[in-house]
Design brief:
Helices cover about 40% and strands about 10% of the residues. By secondary structure, the chain is α/β, with parallel strands linked by helices. The longest helix has 22 residues. The relative contact order is 0.08. It binds glutamine and zinc ion (ZN). It is an enzyme of class 2 (transferase).
Length: about 750
């Protein structure tokens, strides 16, 4: 009979208990003992859920107080020097200092860098290596958790990140592979300790096997795993996920490991090739339950697909989710308000455990065939592609720029902001009252109108050139649109960890998307009525709405994206008709949808760029389209950004040096339209000095022609307070005036 297991489970707790406890601890509201108790409780619940679903093993080591990569950095002694001075007086606080720069004890310090975990919206803490990096094993936390689980009666499978993936994730040295010989002894020792702790199996994650690996990285696998296998007293399960193995498949299966896990959701075509190369002493773990989405699995499909494999492999077939369930909400049972019809289509992590059990039973000889999930009819991808071709504005940028500048008569170096203004406690309170029906729709609207009027008034006083309405009506830039579009399901508790204690609650795309009525027009129209200066209409782009939602599984992503683009195009048309002449369509998530493998890039950019262009394909030449992205390293996606052909793009750049801007100024012609590289960092509470901003502007003018340069902050201002925002923007406007007068 096939065995079941998972690669990892979410650690936020079914009701985000861990998040609450962490934040309370950081604020000094609870002590460390109380925090530790909540962590232990979450772990116990997670393990219990796995045992109750009859999994062969309980996976241990996937818990983290902040991040699993940071767990490993501390386990191997990878602690950058700046953390030694002013160290905290206990280990957990020191851990939090590395994670977030501060903890209840120890001096504040610059936190570790954070970046996205492969193509997910989870952020890990980047290991910082030095050329003379030394490693020293201290696996105390992992061994303690193994013991803790064993004492609760679990048959434990510890999980660790493999040495090659761990090194690949780090920064600070030119070739991280050079550090491998020094790191390996720690892994050898670690495997010995885990075997001593009676771990029958150890799971080693090497997701980089799903990437376009350089030769030297691929070649490092065999000798590395020779050493690990030799040392290990436990059996080793090598796991890969998020991407097909392709040219790395042979490498993975030839390693001296006792089993290999593949992501059969991302690469169903690799099940057969994998089964074919599997050695007689190896197990094949197939991840068929999607760890990246919330839909119930079509178990009938997998029953049919896997029956021959199960017959052939027997106990050597393991069933699992495609990747760790970290990327899925915890428990559907906590969704009190969700319609039953919707609930029946969904599976969160706990329900996915049940699915594994059902599938296991369905693969027993003689098991009855499972009922298939009904499929919906939708438009084919080919139709979509066809529609995306040749939907773009009739005029070229230079033609548009001429009419736009005649219409707007903006000064050189026009000043603007990215959209949101501070979301104050008062505003949140009003929103809460409205949600709980303590105030009426008209009261709520009156509050928002007052807020908009205030935001416009302040911008007028500051002397900004292109204004915004401030986005007071939005709690989240995707949820706000998802709530107004048909085709989305909104959950009450569908939280997924984004980083540390931060969680996101992506809406679920459940069907064909359409726009029943205008979503932003009345607010923009009202804001514009208060000023003679242009007020930007503010939309979230189709690619970002798609990438920050759980997508459908029954149609390609391109189909949903085009549907969103269509809805947004109607909105753009309505804004234009209402007299809004500058419309910003934010696409901060364009980059994170880029496939992990180069071979998928062209296809993605074709439809993603096509959908963005579609949203503004019908506007008049004198309507100015802006877009915004919250990062500055565009090298890999520069062509796509140029292809968006927005009249103006605002980007993050204050925290990066000017080299990153070279892409925009760059040799290949750079960015041909107008550009506003953020001139100060909105993530920090520090108010930038005027002189500093003047300098920055001159630096920018060295790479960007003056007639193309806009002046704006890095990103939206909603997380800041008014005192900071007021002074920072005043300095920004003053600095711009200084430079205008001098050039
Ligand atoms: N317009 C949005 C805002 O200002 C953009 C947010 C973002 O880029 N993430 O808040
Ligand atoms: Zn931004």
């Amino acid at each position: 009979m096939a065995q079941t297991h998972i690669l990892g489970y979410p650690r936020i707790g079914a009701r985000r208990e861990l998040k609450r406890a962490q934040e309370a601890y950081w604020k000094g509201e609870i002590d460390q003992r109380a925090l530790l108790a909540v962590g232990a409780q979450v772990r116990a619940q997670n393990w219990q859920a796995q045992q109750a679903a009859g999994l062969a093993f309980t996976t241990v080591g996937d818990f983290a107080w902040y991040d699993q990569v940071l767990n490993h950095s501390l386990m191997f002694g990878v602690v950058p020097e700046r953390f030694t001075a002013g160290a905290a007086d206990n280990q957990l606080d020191q851990y939090f200092r590395l994670a977030r720069g501060r903890a209840p004890s120890g001096e504040p310090v610059a936190a570790s860098a954070m970046t996205k975990w492969f193509d997910t919206n989870y952020h890990y803490l980047v290991p910082e290596f030095t050329a003379d990096q030394q490693f020293e094993l201290d696996a105390e936390w992992l061994l303690a958790e193994v013991k803790e689980a064993q004492s609760l009666g679990h048959s434990v499978k510890p999980v660790i990140i493999g040495p090659l993936t761990y090194l690949w994730l780090g920064r600070g040295v030119e070739n991280a592979l050079d550090l491998l010989p020094r790191l390996l002894p720690c892994y050898v020792e670690l495997l010995k300790q885990l075997a001593n702790a009676a771990a029958q199996w150890v799971q080693i994650d090497e997701p980089i096997l799903g990437l376009d690996l350089q030769e030297n990285w691929r070649e490092a696998f065999a000798p590395t795993y020779e050493i690990l296998a030799e040392a290990s007293g436990s059996k080793l399960l090598l796991t890969t996920y998020f991407s097909p193995l392709r040219e790395n498949l042979e490498t993975a299966f030839a390693l001296p490991v006792d089993g290999v896990h593949i992501d059969a959701v991302r690469a169903p075509e690799e099940i057969m090739p994998a089964a074919a190369v599997l050695r007689k002493d190896q197990v094949l773990s197939v991840g068929v339950i999607n760890g990246r989405n919330v839909w119930r699995t079509d178990l009938a499909h997998w029953q049919a697909e896997l029956l021959p494999v199960a017959k052939h492999l027997g106990e050597r077939l393991w069933l699992s989710a495609s990747c760790s369930l970290l990327h899925t909400p915890v428990d559907l049972e906590t969704e009190a308000a969700l319609a039953n019809a919707d609930k029946q289509k969904l599976a969160y992590s706990r329900q996915k455990l049940d699915e594994l059990q059902l599938l296991q039973r369905a693969l027993k000889p003689g098991a009855p065939a499972l009922a298939a999930i009904a499929k919906t009819e939708s438009r084919s991808e080919a139709d979509v592609r066809e529609e995306l071709v040749s939907t773009w504005r009739a005029q070229t940028y230079p033609e548009r720029a001429a009419v736009q500048s005649a219409r707007w008569q903006l000064p050189l170096l026009p000043t603007t902001t990215i959209g949101s203004f501070p979301q104050t406690d008062a505003l949140r309170e009003v929103r809460r009252q409205f949600r709980n029906q303590e105030i009426s729709q008209s009261d709520y609207d009156a509050h928002l109108r007052a807020e908009i009027a205030e935001v416009i008034r302040r911008q007028e006083i500051l002397g900004l050139d292109v204004l915004v309405h401030g986005e007071a009506e939005r709690n989240d830039m995707v949820e706000y649109f998802g709530e107004q579009l048909d085709g989305f399901i909104h959950t009450g508790n569908g939280w997924v960890q984004s980083y540390g204690s931060r969680c996101v609650k992506p809406p679920i795309i459940a069907g064909d998307i359409s726009r029943p009525s205008a979503m932003t027009v009345r607010w923009s129209e009202y804001a514009q009525s208060l000023s003679k200066k242009p007020v930007k209409g503010m939309l979230t782009g189709p690619v970002t709405i798609l990438n920050w939602s759980f997508p459908r599984e029954d149609v390609p992503r391109a189909v949903s994206c085009l549907q969103i683009a269509k809805a947004l195009r109607q909105e753009v048309q309505d804004l234009e008709a209402a007299g809004i002449g500058i419309i910003q369509i934010d696409e901060p998530a364009l980059r994170e949808g880029v496939p992990l493998r180069e071979s998928g890039h062209k296809d993605y950019f074709d439809w993603a760029v096509g959908c963005f262009r579609y949203t503004c394909s019908r506007v008049q030449p004198e309507t100015q389209i802006h877009t915004h992205m919250c990062y500055s390293n565009f090298n890999a996606i520069m062509d796509a950004i140029v292809a968006l052909d927005a009249d103006v793009i605002t980007i993050e750049s204050a925290r990066s040096d000017l080299r990153l801007l070279q892409a925009f100024a760059g040799e290949g012609g750079g960015y041909p339209n107008e550009i506003g590289p953020g001139i100060y960092d909105i993530h920090s509470p520090n108010v930038p000095e005027r002189a500093e901003l003047v300098n920055r502007l001159y630096q920018l003018l060295e790479v960007i022609p003056v007639e193309k340069l806009w002046v704006n902050p890095d990103c939206g201002l909603k997380t800041r307070n008014w005192a900071e925002v007021g002074s920072a923007l005043l300095n920004m406007v003053e600095a711009t005036r200084t430079v205008r007068a001098e050039i």
